[in-house]
Amino acid sequence: MRELPVAGRPPAERADAAHNRRRILRAAAEMIAARGPEAVTMDEVARAAGVGVGTVYRRFGDRARLVYAVIDDREREFQSAFIKGPPPLGPGADPRDRLRAFLRALADRTEEQADLLLMAESDPPEARFRDGSYRLYHRHVAMLLGQIRPDADTAYLADALLAPLAANLFLHQRRTRGMGLDRVKAGLETLAEGLTR
C-alpha cells in the first residue's frame, strides 16, 4: 500500500531514489575523506556511486547542494541543540547568554567542517545565503537581538554577526592569520556585546 503524504513533511521517497541518494552521499563523503572537498565533482561522484551524472544533478542540483547534503547530519545535531537543547544554547536562558552561546557553538561547528563549508558556500558564490541553515541562523540571531534591542535593525545586525563565520573569512583568520579558535570566539563575543548595549 502506498503511503499518503503528511502535511508539513516532504513527500515519501521511492525506495530506489532513497537507495541512490544514500549511494551518492556515501561516495561523496568517501571522496571528501580521502582527497579533500576540492576533489568532489558531480561526474566523479556519479561514477563512484554507480549512477548517471544526470541522477546526481536532478537529486542535488549543483556541487554546493551535494556538499551541504553530506554535512547535513552534523548540521541537524547543531540545530537541535540551539532550538530545543538545554540552556544557555537552548531555550530558557537570557537572550544575551543565548546569543553568546550560539556564536561560540557556531564557531565550533564551522571549525569542525570548515573545508566542506568553504566548498559549499562558494559554489556558486551566493550558495551560503540560499542554504536553509543560514536562513535559520539568521532568524535565530535576529530573534535574540530583537529580545535584547527591540528598536534595532535586527535583520542587518544578524547578518553582521554571522558574517565573520563565513567559511572563507573563518579559514583566513585561522590558517593565514594564525588566530586561535578562542581568539575568534572572543572577537565574536566582543561584536555581540557592542551590538546589544
UniProtKB/TrEMBL annotation:
Entries under InterPro entries matching the protein: Homeodomain-like_sf (IPR009057), HTH-type_TetR-like_transc_reg (IPR050109), HTH_TetR (IPR001647), Tet_transcr_reg_TetR-rel_C_sf (IPR036271)
Residue runs in coiled coils: none
Domain HTH tetR-type positions: 18-78
Keywords for this protein: DNA-binding
PROSITE patterns with a match to the protein in the record: HTH_TETR_2
Entries under Pfam families matching the protein: TetR_N
Residue range(s) of DNA binding per entry: 41-60
SUPFAM superfamilies registered for this protein in UniProt: Homeodomain-like (SSF46689), Tetracyclin repressor-like, C-terminal domain (SSF48498)
Name the UniProt record assigns to this protein: TetR/AcrR family transcriptional regulator
